[in-house]
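Entry for pyridoxal-5'-phosphate complex. Fields follow.
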Amino acid sequence: MGNWPELERQYLMSTFKRLPVVLVRGEGVWVWDEDGRRYLDLVAGIAVNVLGHAHPSIITAIASQSKQLIHVSNLYYSIPQLQLAQMLVDNSCADKVFFGNSGAEANEGAIKLARKFGKLHRGGAYEIISASNSFHGRTLATIAATGQSKFQVPFAPMPDGFKIVPYNDLDALKASTTSNTCAVLLEAIQGESGIHIANVEYLRGVRDWCNQQGLLLILDEIQTGMGRTGKLWAYEKYGIEPDVFTLAKGLAGGVPIGAVLAKDHAACFAPSDHGSTFGGNPLACAAGIATIDTILREQLADHAEEMGNILLDGLRSLQTKHPIITAVRGVGLMAAVDVLGEQAQRIVDIALSKGLILNATGPSTLRMVPALIITKDEVEQALSLLDETMRSL
Ligand code: PLP
């Protein structure tokens, strides 16, 4: 490796624990380091590169949009933004869209929307109930909504107005609801904390509770959206519709973007309530259009379900061979493996040396969120590299 780690120490704030690899190129589910070594990438920029690396439709969209107009202020109309919003509305339960630039910013927007809704319709209620082990971003409001104290402690005190209750516990959520509550914010499948899946009765129960109480149900689909779970949106798996949901990560296949999507009754922003310089810029939206168009045209949500089942079956059979694996969880192409002890990082390191890129979401949990275009052969190669990794422990 060149002197990149030295440059990082000298010039970058120390916020990431990086693996000792410098990635310079990608194609499909494969990436190459600066020495020309190839890796099978099961992380995909953490569920971002839904079409894999260097997908022709994204390359074409970015190249042609960049020749027309990369950025223009939201003081004017821009066609890609309107077209992407229309595609999202046509293919979801939402009626209106607001574009930002990241997941945290999308959730900030949803939090502001819920507070405005509380002012208009719930006598000034402003509290948002979210769940333990959730992850909603790194801004102050989104760490306050995140149910993991490690993200909050260094930055206390937290902004007011957030309550965290145990996940998959409807009674706890009901007990925490007061006249101050304006919304519930949940992930249908918690990604960052290691693929924890909401029970169907729970999420349906939350939907009913929000209806009864006049609360907004906000689903954070930042990791689950864009076909990853086998449906375009995870809420479809539960037979419910949120009032508001948020997107980012895979929405533009790797170009930064975020979005708040809301049904008409919840889309209560008025002019000047919210905004963003870059949000919905033509380049990001052109990439978003190409991404959604490809997912729909190539039925990649169905493909994700099929490949996810092969991956999960394979992981379960590895579990029978390697007692270090204590649990396998997943939906579509969101998979996690729990391992004994605190060995997840060691497994990630060994896998990397064998040409497989994994992610440790905790000391004992591995996460896999590959590109939706992964093939059966590539899933099998990944499983065999993981098998080899486990054998060498
Ligand atoms: N919400 C969820 C469910 C996420 O998984 C993430 C990122 O991992 C975020 C929000 C934050 O997104 P970003 O890092 O783009 O701000």
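NOTE: The mean pLDDT is 98.
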